[in-house]
Amino acid sequence: xxxxxxRSYISGDHRKPLFISGDALTVLGLxxxxxxxxxxxxxxxxxxxxxHGGGIGQExxxxxxxxxxxxxxxxxxRVLKPQGSLWLNIGDTYLNKRLLGLPWRLALAMMDEQGxxxxxxxxxxKIKGGFDTAPDxxxxxxxxxxxxxxxxxxxxxxxDAIRSKPRQARIVNGAVVSATGVxxxxxxxxxxxxxxxxEREKREALDALDSMLEKVRSGELSDFxxxxxxxxxxxxxxxxxxxxxxxxxxxxxxxxxxxxPNGSKPGDVWDILPEDTxxxxxxxxxxxxxxxxxxxxxxxxxxxxxxxxxxxxGTTMLVAYQLGRRSIGIDIAPEYIEMAKRRWESNGxxxxxxxxxxxxxxxxxxxxxxxxxxxxxx
Length: 378
Ligand SMILES: C[S@@+](CC[C@H](N)C(=O)[O-])C[C@H]1O[C@@H](n2cnc3c(N)ncnc32)[C@H](O)[C@@H]1O
Known about the structure:
Elements (H helix, E strand, L loop, with lengths): L1 H10 L6 E4 L2 H5 L7 E6 L20 H18 E11 L3 E2 L2 E2 L2 H13 L2 E9 L16 E8 L20 E3 L2 E3 L7 H9 L5 H20 L5 E5 L15 H8 L2 E6 L9 E3 L17 H11 L5 E4 L6 H8 L3 E6 L2 H14 L19 E2 L5 E2 L3
Parallel strand pairs: 1-14, 2-3, 2-13, 6-12, 13-14
Antiparallel strand pairs: 3-7, 4-5, 6-7, 8-9, 10-11, 11-15, 15-16
Bound molecules: S-adenosylmethionine.
The site of S-adenosylmethionine (SAM) has 22 residues, from strand 14.
């Protein structure tokens, strides 16, 4: 019966999330192979909290806890499509003053024993952290969000869906100022005073700089950097065999890096306030809605299905719905499933993406070279 419900949800076109009360291992066992696009989940902490339904997290030994999670994650791997992704939010715990390293113990076992491929270890900076009186160590304010895939390439990833919009250039006292404050004055002076450029190269560099500034003024480009022979630290191998830019520096004396026109890509440190500080009663460790947005937008196609085998109060499902994705949420505690349903009924149907509310660390701009390839660091 449950297996039929799951199959008909997967093959149907219901947008409303499917909530199932039950043990994750049992329910996952009823899902067909390769039927889910994205799994976003936060398993129970080890012996930190007593949830209503018991379940995972109460094992006397942390190794048993890891084993229990591995059994579930093996099922998650089976039900994920080959192009699918798993995002796993997991926090650490101390035992007899020793930080156990549970997130990494689990991640390494997943890679070594189950063949998962880790693509990112995102640090979720909770900014505030919990109450902490320990006199002999620092406050703990971060958790991990691991991004795993099943194959090294060809998994679904829509980077443009998670780029932040580029800031625009502005005009100050009649002069154009790029999004990050480039006016061209510094480059102009460097070119004019350069002893590494000859007179012809200086003229060409100044002309090229003027045309870049004109593009910024006209809105065609929001930002750029100029690399001038003998001035800036170069962003490429100095070997001309491997770098076209090294050749440009030799032959012309300069080159440009332009801001990616679609915006910058998020980094792997996310500053997001925990949900407990956002007034949700009745459930411990309810993770914030903002934590789910990048995972869902980037790795679940618009018509795809998101799974959360430890859905608690249904945060993943709510965000999936708001972002137009279908979803299946499982939790062992019937009370949480009821809370998740009620929460979805009172909030879910409001539409529109809340993407802009993500509190992000200032993102590094992403730069592209002339062939459009991204350069991560300047
Ligand atoms: C960290 S909480 C998840 C919180 C959730 N992200 C939210 O937004 O509320 C972990 C959840 O896993 C559930 N759980 C524990 N063992 C389980 C099991 N064997 N099967 C399914 N759910 C389980 C707990 O009831 C708890 O709600």
